[in-house]
Specification:
Chain lengths: ~260, ~375
Amino acid sequence: MPSKQRKPTLAVWKFASCDGCQLSLLDCEDELLQVAGAVQIANFLEASSAVQPGPYDLSLVEGSITTPHDAERIQAIRKSSRFLVTIGACATAGGIQALRNFADVEEFTRIVYAKPEYIKTLKHSTPISEHVKVDFELRGCPINKGQLLEVISAFLHKRRPNIPQHSVCLECKARGTVCVMVAQGTPCLGPVTQAGCGAICPAYQRGCYGCFGPQENPNTVALSAWWTLLGLDEAAQQRAFRTYNAGAKAFSKEAERHG
Amino acid sequence: MQKGPFVLERSGLLQLLQALKAKGYLTLGPTVREGAIVYDQLSRLEDLPIGYTDHQEGGTYRLRRRGDEALFGYNVGPHSWKRFLHPPILRLFRARKINGGFEFEHEAEALPNYAFIGVRACELLAIRVQDQVFLGGAYQDPHYKARRERVFIVAVNCTQAGNTCFCASVQSGPKAQAGFDLALTEVLEGDRHYFVGEVGSERGAEVLGEIPHRAALPSEVAQAEAKVAQATRQMGRSLATEGLKEMLYQNLEHPRWEQVAARCLSCGNCTQVCPTCFCTSVEDHTDLSGVAERTRRWDSCFTADFSYLHGGSVRVSTKARYRQWLTHKLATWQDQFGMLGCVGCGRCITWCPVGIDLTEEVAAMRGAHV
Ligand code: SF4
Ligand code: SF4
Ligand code: SF4
């Protein structure tokens, strides 16, 4: 970036989420200085309470929409953002809190809060893209910091981010990890899940939990038929598809089949 | 130079490893890890899968104890030598923006000299197939070439075959025919444990000259041959190759493609474990300080990006992707490279997470009952 030009402004926003994805940005350490050198951080409450007014060149949005107030807030953020990128499973699929979509949220509020009448919450937890136009969705629970830097860098260099949408299996094979499903009969979501994490769980002898949501062409029905042969019952199959990306269409549809 | 077959005692194998190391080779071979026999660095005989074998079926692999002390008593696992000759991820260059132009940094690769220990006959053919792909045409791949030229190959003949093996029907094994420096057949008979060997190159003869060995007795050679013949009898699968290409070309709209697509996960595992699949994707990255980097990584015809042309992917459906894979391996490969793209190792069958079996698909399309 030529230094004379005005630096693009970056804003980071939070909705219903655990903050883990924003933390990935802080976690960039060495690269964070590069980020700070390349963009002007105009709003990032996790890092600084100094907020500069919009418009912003790039907004990173974490979290899902779960309240009427947030549904309005995202509209205003969209209006003041040139590019809007959602980060993490909450923002791209509704997050773990999308489990409420399959239950009675009023009952939850009654059980959890002493005065439920003060709680204004929506029936469903929804991804940002159901409310406003999103320019790019970065998956993951949490996101991968290398991928986040790739997205920011692609934005700054005006190119398409290089974020593959194929299965986790290609990452296992590239690192030489032995397939846990084939060699140990461990049910794994890897074949239907998008790569991005670097295939961490199988490298530690666990099946993939699907943190990056469905890959571009997921055949969940065929995978689940194999799981049945491996001895996984219906309830366990439903649970496997109902975690961080429970709200992603391919996963929620598959989970329903095991209800 | 050792002309006829020779005998190497079990202890001679350690001396072979040591001789190769002394010559500066990085010795790679089979070892047990994560519930399978994979290829990694070897320094002692204890690194080998002593007493292990494997049970393989479509979508299933299990390590088993053999009940003896065989060092090479298994069939091929999830890794192939391709990961060393054609690495999964390779940085091609870095470039820095300077005064409106680019300054390129080509790193001279510090490559080890690999010695592959325990290369099976089907794998020797797979290496020959990749030689044809990377070195056979007008444009040679310098990265493959640099690695390939220096490899020392110790082949080990199979004395048993797995359930997903079909090297016999594609004439790639189970006995190593060519392309090795040394080839061994392991014999365990009573309380004797030895290797009957064959020299395949000058380099092989030179290394052999440095370790204790002797000419093999006819009875020892016969023992070794009987073991290999046993593997031929055990082949778990077969693939009829006659007229295969024409048959596939005539059946591009066979209903079987839809049926297999319903089961296929389009995960790409089959292409990654296949020792002949060579496809890569070239990716450019930039970091925030303006350093660009070009890398090459294994890709697969099962991904949407693989067939991305201007405006979108050409092969959107799983059916189109599976058909590309199978017809490339068995038909278009012949037009492209003058040989089959399949060496009958069975990896794509075992390591397909849902056990899809190309021999079964071909048989079904031929109209045979499966
Ligand atoms: S197609 Fe399958 S059996 Fe044939 S060489 Fe490749 S992995 Fe082995
Ligand atoms: S089968 Fe697919 S991945 Fe393998 S070489 Fe052919 S096009 Fe490439
Ligand atoms: S054939 Fe098997 S390994 Fe290959 S893409 Fe389909 S499901 Fe994956």
